[in-house]
Design goal:
about 500 residues, 18 helices
Length: about 500
Amino acid sequence: MADAILELLDPHIDANASATTSRSPRSRSTDATTTKYLNRLTSLSLEQLKSAEPQSISQSAHSTLLSLQALSNRSHKALISSSDHLSTLRSLVPSLEQDAKNLQEGIPRLDSEAVRFSTTYSKSSENPHLDRRKKAMQLSRNVDRISDILELPALLSTAVSTSSATAGPAAGSSVSANYSTALDLYSHIKRLQTFYPDSPLIKDIILQAEDAMKTMTTNLIAGLRTQNIRLAAAMRTIGWLRRVAPELEHPQRNRGSTASGEGALGALFLVCRLANLVSTLDALDPLRELADQETQRRVEAASKERVSSSKSSAWTGGQQTERFLKRYIEIYREQSFAIVSLYKNIFTPEPIESDHQMPTILPGLELKSLNLKTQPPAKRIRKTDPLQVLPPAVATFPMHLVRLLTDTLRAYLPNVRDKSSRESLLSQVLYCAGSLGRLGGDFSMILTELEGEDQGEEDGEIVREWEEITRKHRALAGRLEQLTSGQLRGASSSPK
């Protein structure tokens, strides 16, 4: 019934309807509201349709208009935004469809790339990029440790340079602390080398540390040449050298070393102290030049004497030479005794096993001066290679010291013609020989060979004076010994 009425009213509705409506007859026929309203119309009478229905429709339209106005006033922004979105919906829906299609096509490629990435950079695979990243991360975690390791050569160089800068008699404790710190740092660096032998960083640090140790070795060797070195300082320096340069203590392990176990350190110590002695004696060059001038004048006077065959031009000078020799012998006596004494206190020699031993540290020196010969043993129990075990360096060192003194005496003592002055100088030499004699290096007998090839009768007199002074001193020493022994016997026999 509603459909029939709708068909009858459809032409009138299309003529009177608004131009903005977009509903088709089919849509209107299927509209539930329209169908409900048409069913309601069929239930009304004709009188109600003419009188009450128009008024009801007018009231409903007015109420709907007021509702629309209130809604427009309240929600006009949302309506405008909805209208705008609705106008762009036609273009957005195809774009969304195309994007969804592209996403669907890209998912397989994304999956394959993810599988490739997982296979390439997995923990079980070997990849240089992963290794480099691991190393970078490990470096980042250990950057503090590495910075501390990189500072070790600088700290070592600072300790060594500070020790050399503050070296002196009043800075013994600070120098000792700095050198001990340097040696501890070097030991730590060597320990790092054993832990990481293939690390290029550690190898570079080792090279820098070895350069610093070479500088320290140079400073220590220079310290052995200082003036008036004490026993404690010398022992500390030798101890540091043993730690810094152990190859000096055992230079040839496979071919044998010295019997005292000193290696090359003993010879190094003696050479340094000898250099100090020579430099100290070189400070007497102004006096030596005056003595050389007197030597030249003496030679000229001797040549004139030979030419004129008279003694009118005999040499009577020698005062400057006496001053030079007196000071020379004083320095020589003090320094030579100190050198050998320090050596014997630092390097305690062990007894050398041999078929015959000399109690002196100058083997063969007194025998040569006395023209004595030792008889070789009839039969040797054990035959050894003399190159297997080397003697201590001090065994031949005093011979060099004696040669320094004898050469000087042979060159300048003939200038001193005054007998009392010459006896005074010879007495000083005798005391010097006695000082070294307490250490096993008495050279008093070798001075009997002072005359040279070009010496004359007056120079031979010096040797005779030396022999006479030696006999006097020995006789005096014998009387003092008897007097001392007599006093001791008297003290022991006296009643308590």
